[in-house]
Amino acid sequence: MTHQEILKSLQQKIYRPVYFLHGEEPFFIDLISNYIESNVLEEAEKSFNQTILYGKETDHLTVLDNARRYPMMSPYQVVILKEAQEMRDLEELTKYLEKPLDSTILVIAYKHKSYNKFNGKFGRLLREKAVILESKKLYDNQVADWIIQYMKAKNYQLAANVAALIAEYLGTDLSKIVNELEKICLNVPAGATITLVQVEENIGISREFNIYELQSALAAKDIGKTMRIVQHFAANERKNPLVLIIGSLSGFFTKLYMLHFVKNRPEAEILKTLDLRSAWFLKDYTLAAKQYNLAKTESILQLLKEYDLRSKGVETNTTNIPEGALLKELAWKILH
C-alpha cells in the first residue's frame, strides 16, 4: 500500500493488527507511525494501552509480551517498535505473526533501508498478515513535484521555479524540507502564492544567486543580472562548481532546443516532450525561445560542450584558468 492509502484507512478508523513500515526514506515511515501514536487512542487510554519500544534496547520476548496483552477499557492497544532494524532477533516475531491479536495494533518501523527477506518465513507472514509500506527515497527530479503537491494540500500555490529552488537547496531529505516548508506556512496566509521573496525570508535561500536564477536571467537575456550572478558564482567556486553549472545549463538549453520544434503544439504535448510537470516551468523556456532562435540555441549547446571540456582540461591548455573566469567568458558568449 502507499502511505496515502494507509493514512486514508487510518483516518476512517480502519485498523489492521500489524503494520510493517520499511525503506530508505524515513519521512513516510514517521508519518504513519506518528499518526497511529497520536490518533488511534484517546489521551486517557494511552497510559495503559500504548507502548513505545526501540529495537536497540529491546528483544522479541518483550515485544511479544506487550503485543499479547489485552487492552484495558479500550477496544485497542498500540505497540510501536521504532528503529526495528536495530533489533537483533526481529524475525523471532514470527510466532506472533502466525496469530496476531485483533485488539493489538503492532507497528514495526524498520528505517533507513529496505527489508529484503520476504522469501523467508517472517517475510511471508508479513505479506500475509501485515499492511506493508516500502518507503522509497525520491529521485532528485521528483522532489520539486512533491513540494508542489505538499503545499497544494495545504492550500498554497508556488510561483515559477520556487519548488525547484527549494529542492536544489535542500536536497532530497523530506523531513528537512517539510520543516522548512512549515516555517513558510506559519508566516504566509493559506491561499497565497509562495514567491521567491517569501522563500528567502523564511528559509534563508538566496533568491538571486542560484542556478535557477541564472537560467531565468539568461532566458530573459538580462545581461546585468546574469553577470551579477556569475560574479557571485566566480567568487564562491567551491559552492558552485563549474561542471554542475554547465550540466544544469545544458539541460535547460537542450529542452529549449526541443521547444523550437514543438512550440506551436498544444501545451500538454509541449510539457510531455520537455518532460516538465507543470506549466510553471514552461515560462522560462517560452521566454528564452523568443531570445534565442534555433541556430543560436545550437551554437549555445556547442559552447556548453566546449566549456565543459575546457573546465576539465581535456585537449586544452586551460587547467590553470580559474573556473570563475571560464564561467564569465561562457556567459558573455551565450548572451552575445
Description:
By secondary structure, this protein is of the alpha/beta class. Helices cover 56% and strands 10% of the residues. The protein has a 5-stranded parallel sheet, sandwiched between helices. The radius of gyration is 26 Å and the shape is elongated. The termini are far apart.
Q: What does the secondary structure layout of this molecule look like, with pairings?
A:
Blueprint: H1 3-11, E1 18-23, H2 26-39, H3 43-49, E2 50-54, H4 60-67, E3 77-82, H5 94-98, E4 104-111, H6 121-129, E5 131-134, H7 140-153, E6 157-158, H8 162-170, H9 174-187, E7 193-194, H10 196-203, H11 211-219, H12 223-235, H13 242-262, H14 267-273, H15 282-291, H16 294-311, H17 323-335
Parallel strand pairs: 1-4, 1-5, 2-3, 3-4, 6-7
Helix pairs in contact: 1-2, 7-8, 9-10, 11-12, 11-15, 12-17, 13-15, 13-16, 16-17
Low-confidence stretches: none
Could you tell me the strand content as a percent range? 5-15%
Average pLDDT score: 90
- Total strands: the figure is 7
Shape category: elongated
How would you summarize what this structure contains?
With 336 residues, the chain is an alpha/beta fold. The protein has helices at residues 3-11, 26-39, 43-49, 60-67, 94-98, 121-129, 140-153, 162-170, 174-187, 196-203, 211-219, 223-235, 242-262, 267-273, 282-291, 294-311, 323-335; strands at residues 18-23, 50-54, 77-82, 104-111, 131-134, 157-158, 193-194.
